[in-house]
Amino acid sequence: GGGNFLEPCSKGFGALILQKSVSQKSRKIFHFSSFKKYGFTLAEVLITLGVVGVIAAMTIPTVVSNYQKMVTVHRLKQTYSQIWQAMRMVSNDFGGDDPDGWDCSDWDIGANWYKSPAQSRCIYLVFDKIANATIFPRTGKKETMMCHIPGKDYPEYTYVNGVKVANNDKTFCGNGYSASFPNGACVAWTPLYWCYESGGSFIIDVNGSYTGPNRMGRDLFVFRWGTANDQVNPVPALALWPHGYTMTRNGVITVPERKQLINSWRGCNKYQEGANCTGLLVHDGWKISPDYPW
User: Fold this and answer.
1) pLDDT of residue 122
2) What DSSP character marks residue 255?
3) Within 13 Å and on the Cβ side, how many CA atoms surround 143?
4) Which residues of the chain have pLDDT under 50?
5) Residue 247 carries which DSSP code?
6) What SS3 class is residue 91?
7) pTM attached to this predicted model
8) Measured between alpha carbons, how far is 78 from 162 in angstroms, rounded to an integer?
9) To the nearest 10°, the Cα dihedral for 283, 127, 120, 244?
């Protein structure tokens, strides 16, 4: 009776496709579920984290310490170079290397500036040569000679052995000036003839007076300045050398033995003041060696 003869075939074909599709899906599901799943237990994760923590605790302090040493040496070398270049410029302004020949008596420098005789007469002009340096007025007190801001005291300075620097006359001097350098260092100057044993020094705090630890040999270093002769041509010339190096009676700067820098008076060890740590650092090639009292 005129029916669609394809209908049974189409239904049968559709059933066949559906059956095949279901069969494929079931095979896929079975295939997926046949994979073995891998993972870590909670105990394994905790043990791994513990091991990582122990390794980090052992290595991170060393990494941080090495980085701090690198930054300290870099800033010290940079500041030393700026001071030396500025000293050379002042020397050129006065037409000679010998600071004894510098004469700034006619300079209008104001009442806050300090005039001292001979080699100390014009050394404060060095700070004027440092671009963007902030010069602090003389306070007259050893406790506040390092870039002191009125009304804001900085942490006290100490030697390697813990003694307060301001308790003696070997380093700080109330007759000195200080300046803050663009790299963050604070540099103080002590005149040669007016500060007893500390005279003729540049005292460098590589990270500024208001940032600790404010300890000799850690962030505080001392360089001596004045006139010296070389061994070939004994003519007085401008010189800047690390504390701990010595000068002969003929005015020749000599490099002492390493053990002398460590064990001599003001030596670079934890039982003494440590002013010679500047000399030891320079002696070792501008680096902080393993036996350095960091």
Assistant:
1) 64
2) P
3) 8
4) 5-6, 8-10, 13, 15-18, 22-23, 25-27, 30, 32, 107-120
5) E
6) helix
7) 0.76
8) 27
9) -10
